[in-house]
Design a protein that fits this description.
The complex is a heterodimer. By secondary structure, chain A is α/β, with parallel strands linked by helices. Chain A is 40% helix and 15% strand. By secondary structure, chain B is mostly helical. Chain B starts with 6 loop residues before the first helix and ends in a 21-residue tail after the last helix. The chains are: A alpha/beta, B mainly alpha.
Chain lengths: 463, 61
């Protein structure tokens, strides 16, 4: 096994034991970038010299006895909405031509403090306003879309060209590409991970979170980036801490809500079967399943659009006036249309999300976790973005994936997507686990238990 | 159902919002706005009672 194929957890343990050096690991990952770029085109910018210098410094620090923790010497990539001083933050858009960030984002600061090594910036669907990331190819099947908007983040992690990455999630943009590429993505509770220095899409529903190869890895990254920062008005004081998972997680008594409405409606049969099998596996580990009904299901999509569309237009209003031709066609049209949403509809959306928050809180008094598909489909080809359902209805791809992602953005609840299987074409299927506010540890515990069990089945044929 | 915006109305609304549309963009902007509004319109059926709007404003920072 080459170093870049290790999980973050395994690489961190090897570095701590002085069995692997950060320089060796970073060279391995940079070599993997050489092998995969192109064709995957996950990266906007590769900062190889900087990465080598940071890895050398990490190696020296660790050799001198200054080991800062599990991310020390671990190479990673940042979605190109996240500022790094001295580098352009392109947002994968011509609108940002000539940009150079003056200061680090809070995430860049925190990951640097943890000793991680920056490999470069990875592609987003332009300004995170879409779920395709057309520049980037799916890491499992290059004929399929990467998903988005954190497409580069998920593809790099899946391909081994980053040990972990950060993404953003406004309507599914961490979970969708994670599911499509067979990696783990965590959308934290709204306000747990601060966003200062990250280009916004929609202030009231934007989240930043980790993408990694295992649930345990995602927990290690979350521990480095969570916690209050007063420069983000949505940041929650008194949060953060250690999110490392237990080696032997115990799910005894965990109540798993299985939706009887909404989340399994209009879902491909292979996706539903894989997620239900994963729930059965969790039950075999001590959890018990409870049927639950999702509240306000008719208003989920409308509420998300009432918030995101006008807020995104507000974010971009200056460049919409001065340089509209620089936007891609799809993003430009959505931004222009956002100016035509009445303010009262935005306020209705803000009232509805308060109703949803109340009703989901009641729901989460009866269960500890809700399990559902991350996406209703596996990654489609780029020319098959209109979905046909057995009931004869058709659905636009974006509407279909937002449908399952949006509740966690509106309620702000944490949602963890993890791989639970594959379809007949070998394309990954993701399950999302949703939980109570700031109870990421419960999601990580359940997800880690599933992964350990899944791994045992793959290796030994026995759960 | 909602009444769709005409291209002329889209141009007027955009102008009024302070983000005028470039010539030739009225029709597609109106069509996409209608699609969004179709989804958002369900919120008009809801009795919100005394539920206040969520907000990010924080007077303490």
């Amino acid at each position: 096994m080459r170093p870049h194929e290790l999980s973050l957890t395994a690489a961190a343990a090897a570095i701590a034991a002085r069995e692997l050096s950060p320089v060796e690991l970073t060279e391995s990952v940079l070599g993997r970038i050489e092998e995969t770029e192109p064709p995957l085109n996950a990266y906007v910018t590769v900062t190889g010299d900087r990465a080598r210098a940071e890895a050398t410094r990490a190696e020296q620090e660790i050799a001198a006895g200054d080991h800062r923790g599990p991310l020390h010497g671990i190479p990673m990539a940042l979605k190109d909405l996240i500022d790094v001083a001295g580098l352009p933050t392109t947002a994968s858009s011509r609108v940002r031509a000539g940009h150079r960030a003056e200061r680090d984002s809070v995430l860049t600061e925190r990951l640097a403090a943890a000793g991680s090594v920056l490999l470069g910036k990875v592609h987003t669907h332009e300004f995170a306003y879409g779920l395709i990331t057309a520049q980037t190819r799916n890491a499992v099947d290059q004929g399929r879309i990467a998903g988005g908007s954190s497409g580069g983040s998920a593809v790099a992690v899946a391909a081994g060209s980053a040990m972990f990455s950060l993404g953003t999630d406004t309507g599914g943009s961490i979970r969708v590409p994670s599911a499509f590429n067979g990696v783990v993505g965590l959308k934290p509770t709204y306000g747990l991970v601060p966003r200062h220095g990250v280009i916004p899409l929609s202030w009231s529903t934007d989240h930043v979170g980790p993408i990694a190869r295992t649930v345990a890895d995602a927990g290690l990254v979350l521990g480095a980036i969570a916690g209050h920062d007063p420069r983000d008005p949505g940041s929650v004081p008194g949060t953060g801490g250690d999110y490392a998972v237990d080696a032997e997680p115990d799910l005894t008594g965990l109540r798993i809500g299985v939706p009887v409405n909404y989340y399994f409606d209009r879902v491909r049969p292979e996706v539903e079967a894989a997620v239900r099998a994963a729930i059965t596996r969790l039950e075999s580990l001590g959890a018990h399943a409870v049927e639950v009904r999702i509240p306000q299901e008719r208003h989920i999509a409308g509420t998300l659009w009432s918030l995101v569309a006008p807020e995104a237009t507000a974010v971009h209003e200056r460049t919409l006036r001065t340089d509209p031709d620089a936007y891609g066609a799809d993003v430009r049209t959505f931004l222009e249309a956002g100016a035509l949403i009445p303010a009262v509809d935005h306020i209705r959306g803000q009232r509805m999300r308060e109703l949803m928050k109340r009703d989901w809180a009641e729901l989460l008094e009866t269960v500890d976790v809700i399990a559902a598909p991350s996406t209703p489909i596996t990654a489609p080809p780029p020319d098959a973005l209109t979905l046909e359902w057995p009931d004869g209805s058709t659905e636009d791809y974006t509407a279909a994936v937002v449908r399952l992602s949006a509740p966690a953005n509106l309620t702000g609840l944490p949602a963890l997507s993890l791989p639970v299987g594959a379809d007949a074409d070998g394309l990954p299927i993701g399950m999302q686990l949703l939980g109570r506010p700031l109870e990421e540890r419960t999601l990580l515990r359940a997800g880690h238990a599933f992964e350990l069990s899944h791994h045992r089945v793959e290796v030994t044929g026995r759960p | 159902m909602i009444n769709g915006l005409t291209p002329e109305q889209a141009a007027q609304w955009a102008e009024r919002a302070g983000i005028p549309l470039r010539p030739g963009r009225e029709e597609i902007a109106a069509a996409v706005a209608d699609g969004l509004q179709e989804s958002i319109a369900s919120l008009r059926e809801v009795d919100f009672g005394d539920m206040p709007a969520a907000g990010a404003f924080d007077a303490t920072t």
